[in-house]
Specification:
homodimer, Beta-carbonic Anhydrase, Chain A, 5-stranded mixed sheet, 5 strands, globular
């Protein structure tokens, strides 16, 4: 990690008494977003440290987020809205599961074990962002592993304008 | 989503011309951190929007992050350091996989399908934060699905002081 990041951390720690987050400011909400460097859920929504639980993975996949939703719901009483936010120009619209499998196999030509593992993986390719948001919210709404009644919303974050637009609202009903 | 968050997004979009992130400021690094509301990788390291790819899940598990690491590595040329950052007082130290299974089954008493699904899930319980960081970095270093030579580092983020401390450095060697 670059020295300037470590210096920034020292400054952060030096001023920590006034910054220290606590669960008192938690809004009882979860956000699922992409790990893309251009996505910053704090900036995007004016969120301060401590206000939201934020899950991020390639594409902002709800399927990939299930474990991370279940733990706070079932163990720590986090019952609030789950907002699924996908963004335009997402990398997951640019590479398919089949292409990912080929790329990984090419990087490991002599490894049958790698080929078998990657062939068993789904990379959650996105064909259409709005459809993917709808599908992810539908997936959560029908998932009995989650707390029944949890409010769900699905959003598209436009990287060209910085605006978020609501695609769908729902609730866990399984 | 609360109206004040949507208002904050309108402000963000209104000032977007000067804020718009681009990959020009990307530091070619990935961060894996926990989804806990008290963890904010931007504040913690003084990172600005666009500088890092940030994966977040319950516990900051590297095992859970593999798909999200593979896509940018194999498809988008993200070859830089992966920093695994776990934090003190993590929820994953407070609930075991067995306890999670029991909680979910109790919430769905008549569902054998739910019981079977949750029994097949690993929730990546953490016994000791430093050991978990070491194990996660070791897991990545030995993983042939990742790009050979990728720099790895493992850190503990102390929620009481705001300081991060390096636990381990390594590289992908599989």
């Amino acid at each position: 990690m670059n020295p300037d990041l470590l210096q920034a951390n020292e400054k952060y720690a030096a001023n920590f008494a006034s910054l220290k987050p606590d669960m008192g400011r938690f809004r009882n909400m979860m956000i699922i977003a992409c790990c893309d460097p251009r996505v910053d859920p704090y900036d995007l929504l004016g969120l301060k440290n401590g206000e939201a639980l934020i899950i991020r993975n390639a594409g902002g996949s709800a399927v990939d987020a299930v474990r991370s939703i279940m733990v706070p719901q079932h163990s720590f009483g986090v019952t609030g809205e789950i907002a699924v936010i996908h963004h335009t120009d997402c990398g997951m619209t640019k590479v398919t599961t089949d292409q990912m499998r080929e790329l990984v196999k090419k990087a490991n030509p002599a490894r049958d074990d790698v080929a078998a593992t990657v062939d068993s993986m789904d990379f959650y390719h996105i064909l259409n962002i709005e459809e993917a948001v709808k599908n992810d919210v539908k997936f959560l709404s029908e998932n009995p592993l989650l707390l029944k009644g949890t409010k769900l919303s699905g959003w598209v974050h436009d990287l060209e304008t910085g605006k978020i637009s609501k695609v769908v609202e729902s609730a866990v009903s399984a």
